[in-house]
Specification:
The chain has 182 residues and is α/β, with parallel strands linked by helices. 33% of the residues lie in helices and 23% in strands. The protein has one domain: Rossmann fold.
Length: 182
Amino acid sequence: MCKVCVFFATGYEEIEALTVVDVLRRAGIGTDMVSVTGEKKVVGSHKIAVETDKFFEEVDFDTVDMLVLPGGMPGTKNLEAFEPLMNKVDEFFNTGKYVAAICAAPSILGRRGILKGRKACSYPTFESHLEGANVSAEPAVADGNVITGRGMGAAIPFALTILRELKDDKTALEMKETIVYK
């Protein structure tokens, strides 16, 4: 069974984070909401507080298949400032495990050299931070073990792309019909 961790830092974009959690849990994929703040309750960029499942220190990363970084400000900056998570992002990428980021968060992957030579997307004002990427205007892009999304309006395509990569096209299409997404 697949296991995914979605990371929450103060100022995360609520829809980007929770859409991924919702879609993956509906599909039966074990998905943990993980706080990097030292508090279980994390407040998003629009002042919506969410109770996470775990603290970063409680995650057994050997059992995790994918790391997901939601965007939002200052959430993206707060995720990037949490060095233990950045070390895990590098480790996952370098060992062929999935890393995914949406909105402003793909800029983190760009600055870490993860996007070089890959097709990627982000929120339009962050495209200059996708260092070495072949920048796309698609809502969501998968290129190898890296998945990126453009922003809040692309949260569902981003989540469905993650689902397709972890499972298959059929499962993603069935989910698309189930949630009545056109």
